[in-house]
Amino acid sequence: MLDVEAVRAKVERTNAIPTIPLVIKKILMAVENPSTSPAAVSKLVSSDPALTARVLKVINAAMYGFVARISSVNQAVVLLGMNLVRALLLGISMFEMMEQAAMGLWKHSLGCAIIAKMLAQKKGMFDPEEASVAGLLHDIGKVVLSVQYPKEYQAAVAAAQEKSVFLTETEAEIFGMSHATAGAYFANTWRLPKFLVESIRSHHLPPLTKSFPVHAATVHMADVLVKAYNVGYSGDPFVPAVHATAWELFNLNEAQMKDLFSEISDLLAQVDDFFKASKR
Amino acid sequence: MLKVSVESVGPGAVLAKPITNETGIILIASGVEVSESLKRKLTGMGITEVFIVGKRIPEIPKDEFVAKINASFSKTEEDPRMVEMKRALLAHIEELY
Smallest Cβ distance to B20: which of A67, A237, A270? Predict the structure, then answer.
């Protein structure tokens, strides 16, 4: 097992990764500073048109049901607020670093974002856009660990398959922490909004958070549902059990659950289309 | 809901999602029937694909889908909530094909 403190330090020092493209590095540095103006961030992102296109595509897909509602980074900041846009830029930049290997995880995450938003809208308990961002970034710890420890992370995924256990177990064996904990360290270092840090930390065990139990339960439920539907690849060979708190929060009987799967089926089919279109 | 090319839309098909412009303003509401004249209009607007109401058959064969679900739920067979979730999912899949 790796030294836990060393893993934590490496997870928290993501801005020191040598392979990060310059524009991403600049963005990461800019978003790290909470006093950076929205205009400055928009300008930075817009300096790379390909990146701008990808960022807007993800925001429209995850937050607005694939309708192209947002057409500039500036507009995204106005509609979603600087904090959410910072978190999205950071998350997207991290996923960009994983490249091809991340496609399955990206798909899983986008699916989770859309389902989390739908669940939040159904319950009307909190801002659905927060649910969407939390869904998109819930597995950011996997991205960070695999960027910082590519070989070891691959070994954790392979060992989970081989031993037929949950990924969190092999992660704990190798890193001394799960991707949920690693993701929370990362989100905290980058001063992401508290609801994000807490939903990332608690997405496998919602009662872990005292301050954002509903956010965490919503992301947890979305994660389980997307894994159940087998869309994308989270690296986990099995669907984890829904925690009692999330189950009780949504309180669905079997018929309602079946209807929910029909809705999910429509939404996830669009995620499929999104990825097919991206490959072209 | 199905995503199809405008030219392949058959008679009687109904929009499942509105047609919007780049800024998200709704140009044609959902629920509108896609007539031949609307198809020409859409093509003229440079729109090549639309969402129509309908059921989409998954690309993956049913047996394969069910086998995947059985495998991924195999760790939670003792959990009554997950048993219920799996039953609901399998019932939904029955309706898909």
Answer: A67
The tens digit of pLDDT for each residue in A22-74 reads 777 787 778 777 787 878 888 888 888 888 888 888 888 888 777 777 888 88
What's the complex ipTM? 0.86
Comparing CB atoms, the residue among B20, B81, B91 nearest residue A242 is B81
**Domain boundaries, position A43:** 4-279
How close A54 gets to chain B, by Cα (Å)? 16
Residues A149-204 have pLDDT tens digits of 999 999 999 999 999 999 999 999 999 999 999 999 999 998 899 999 999 999 99
Structure tokens belonging to residue A232: 């994308």
Cα(B76)–Cα(A230) distance, integer angstroms: 15
- For residues A226 and A113, give the distance between their C-alpha atoms in angstroms, rounded to a whole number: 10
Are A270 and B3 in contact (CB < 8 Å)?
Answer: yes
CATH classification at residue A148: 1.10.3210.10
Q: A84: Cβ–Cβ under 8 A, 6 or more apart, which residues? A: A129, A130, A133, A193
In angstroms, what separates the C-alpha of A180 from chain B's closest C-alpha? 20
B96 with A265: Cβ contact below 8 A: yes
Residue A236: count other Cβ atoms within 10 Å of its Cβ: 25
Q: Domain limits of chain B?
A: 2-52, 62-96
Query: How many domains does chain A fold into?
Result: 1
Is B2-52 in CATH node 2.60.40? no
Q: What is the pTM of this model?
A: 0.85
